[in-house]
Amino acid sequence: MFDFVVSLVERTGYFGIALLMFAENVFPPIPSELIMPLGGFVAAKGELNIVGVVVAGSIGSLLGAIFWYYIGRLVGADRLKRWASRHGRWLGLSPHEVDAARDWFQRHGWAAVFFGRMLPGIRTLISVPAGMARMSLLPFLLYSAAGTIIFTVLLTGAGYLLKSNFELIGEYMNPISNVVVIGLVLGYIYRVVTFDRRNAAKAD
User: The whole model's pTM is what?
Assistant: First the structure.
């Protein structure tokens, strides 16, 4: 993966950065923690402009966020509630919890989107509930763009400063991403195991 990312960015420049960041949002195992620092390193060598790197990375990332936003709108909360009534255990959700999650997101949606776009492991996922809650597209784009730009500026700047040691950023960030993903998996397993008990308590 490392060699592929380096080769693509060196051959295609801004387009490659935008394409990789789009792919990273659609297929999370491609790490933004490598892509943007690499762009910063290439900019430090004078082969790309650092502002162009940030713009390209942010555009690609936003396109990926929009993809998942419309997936969320396509599924919708009502359809998810029907799925939850039939397959709630494996979804880890009951229809009541779908309503509660939608109400929570409608109250805190802008903050969830803004801060979520800066968190490894959450960046991609946060677009789905935004779409399901039918958050207006313009606010979604504004808050997504703000969080995304901050994230890409930090990673690109770190790569620019570290130069040839840019891969160290991935070494420090990857464990954070892994912890988040493991936490999500464990949370899902817990919800599957305790599904009947939780819903019985709600019925009482």
Answer: 0.72
Residue 17 has pLDDT above 70, yes or no: yes
CB-based contact 73:132 (threshold 8 Å):
yes
Summarize the confidence of residues 46-62 as an average pLDDT: 93
Q: How far apart are CA 185 and CA 86, in angstroms?
A: 22
Close Cβ partners of 77 (under 8 Å, ≥ 6 residues apart): 98, 99, 102, 132, 133
Angstrom distance (rounded) from CA 159 to CA 144: 22
Confidence at 197, pLDDT banded by 50, 70, 90: low
- The whole domain housing 15 covers 2-203
Pick the closest to residue 17 from 78, 71, 64, 60 (CA basis): 60
Q: d(Cα 61, Cα 47) in Å, to the nearest integer? A: 22
Q: Which of 35, 25, 57, 38 is nearest to 121 (CA)?
A: 25
User: pLDDT (tens digit, 9 = 90+) per residue, 156-185?
Assistant: 998 888 876 766 655 655 565 566 567 767
Sign of the torsion formed by the C-alpha atoms of 90, 95, 96 and 98: positive
Nearest to 124 by CA among 51, 37, 31: 31
Domain total in the chain: 1
